[in-house]
Design brief:
about 450 residues, alpha/beta, Aspartate Aminotransferase, domain 1, Aspartate Aminotransferase, domain 2, seven-stranded mixed beta sheet, four-stranded mixed beta sheet, binds ligand PLZ
Length: about 450
């Protein structure tokens, strides 16, 4: 199994030829400001020409260590050779017919594979759409059709997308919802479990959530509860043990569909096929996207067969939904995952990051919380000994890392989280370098 190319494995540190961003990137960026609206944000204005494994090469010839993987998409590495080969070979055969007009077998086979690998041995069905937000939208349609109920409950600190329905489900108004209303009705948010901030154990946090569900919404109107098993944009919040399973049990006793949004956490990212497994969950519906095709657009909705068949024929789909090239790439991803090797890499990365960050926290009390699983690890920056967010420090660390050739993403409802979402091709040496660079940023703050 190859997760890396020869070139990328050889590289231990970024290779910088210019300041970051370099002159060519800056020129393109100036054009972009004229051509593209500012609402399309930009974490780091380096313009990319080529990418392999955990490395991105920009137009100025700088090779940067990518610890974000396009927000958790190229989990098996950029331009992973078997994925690229599968997509190329599919391109030569057929690129589009539309599955709902004249279907193709690779769609059916991927549906079988996703149904086989999602948690639970019950009968399942799967269909495909183009993006994570679309997967969430479709899960809501199905849950409503199945239950005959209206309301969808999402958790505090959640992120589910940028469409009209999903932006009503996000925790943060700015920038995701501000000015974009009116919002979809019958979406309610309820408290989550956030051990670092609420100090509640799983039972207590679940009791609080359930009280909101019962009193504010009422079971008679509640179609579904949707949860990211580990919250992504919210800052890799790992719920207290027992929280999610208690919530799932309550949902199943009350005829409420339990939806796991595995869009960021699923498909090998946390060292298991699905993050749900870490919490013993068997969700009614499981949503996948991002890493499913290692960079090609695709998303899946998998669920109990009886629930999935609630929509009328023609009620689900979309022109590009289940594109054959994306699906071919996804089969290569599944082949790699079935080999088991990616899970071992995720476990290795978890160990390297948790050890390194633990050391960092001992020297720098601003590192208030370290959490996550597998190659989905984050730390939250707070005033020492408190939960007061230090958002500016997260921005400073990311900016310093960028100047040293390491692409780090921030996250969190308070903007004070640094998250690692590397590809599984990242080496221990790469991680050590990234941690060194973060330590530099923290040390320069202490001197200031
Ligand atoms: N659910 C859990 O993480 C996308 C957002 C990037 P789409 N997260 C990255 C950005 O700033 O737009 C995401 C997610 C979870 C749903 C989504 C939405 O997936 O493929 O971006 O629509």
């Amino acid at each position: 199994m190859t997760l890396t190319t020869e070139v990328s494995t050889a590289l231990q540190r970024p290779e910088l030829r210019t300041a970051i961003p370099g002159p060519k990137s800056l020129k393109i960026h100036a054009r972009r400001q004229e051509a593209v609206p500012r609402g399309v944000g930009c974490a780091l204005p380096v313009y990319i020409e080529q990418a392999d494994g955990a490395w991105i090469t920009d137009v100025d010839g700088n090779r940067l260590l990518d610890l974000g993987s396009g927000i958790g998409v190229t989990t098996l590495g950029h331009t992973q050779p078997t994925v690229v080969a599968a997509a190329k070979s599919q391109l030569d055969r057929v690129t589009h017919t539309l599955f709902t007009v004249t279907p193709y077998e690779n769609y059916v086979r991927l549906a079988e594979r996703l149904s086989a690998h999602t948690p639970g041995a019950h009968a399942k069905k799967t269909f495909f759409v183009n993006s994570g937000a679309e997967a969430v939208e479709n899960a809501v349609k199905i849950a409503r059709a199945h239950t005959g109920r209206r309301v969808i409950a999402a958790l505090d600190h959640a992120f589910h997308g940028r469409t009209n329905l999903t932006m009503a489900m996000n925790h943060r108004a700015a920038p995701y919802g501000t000015g974009f209303g009116p919002f979809a009705p019958d979406v309610q948010r309820v408290p989550n479990s956030y051990p670092f901030r609420d100090g509640l154990n799983g039972e207590q946090a679940a009791a609080r959530t359930i009280e909101y569900l019962e009193q504010r919404i009422g079971v008679a109107d509640l179609a579904a509860v949707i949860a990211e098993p580990i919250q992504g944009e919210g800052g890799f919040i790992v719920p207290a043990p027992g929280y999610l399973i208690t919530l799932q049990k309550w949902a199943s006793e009350n005829g409420v569909v339990f939806i796991a949004d595995e869009i960021q956490a699923g498909l090998g990212r946390t060292g298991t096929w699905f993050a749900s497994e870490l919490f013993g969950l068997v969700p009614d519906l499981v949503l996948t996207a991002k890493g499913i095709a290692d960079g090609l657009p695709l998303a899946g909705i998998t669920g109990r067969a009886a629930i999935m068949d609630s929509a009328l024929p023609g009620g689900l789909g979309g022109t590009f939904a289940g594109n054959p090239v994306s699906i071919a790439a996804a089969h290569a991803v599944f082949d790699l995952l079935e080999s088991g090797a990616p899970f071992a890499e995720a476990a290795r990365i978890e160990e390297a990051l948790l050890n390194g960050l633990g050391e960092l926290a001992r020297k720098h009390p601003e590192v208030g919380d370290i959490r996550g699983r597998g190659a989905m690890i984050a730390f939250e920056l707070t005033e020492p000994g408190t939960t007061t967010p230090l958002a500016g420090l997260a921005t400073e660390i990311a900016a310093h890392a960028a100047s040293r050739g390491v692409l780090l993403l921030t996250a969190g409802s308070y903007g004070n989280v640094i998250r690692f979402l590397p590809s599984l091709a990242v080496s221990d040496e790469n991680i050590a370098f990234a941690l060194e660079v973060i330590a530099e940023a923290l040390a320069s703050r202490n001197q200031a």
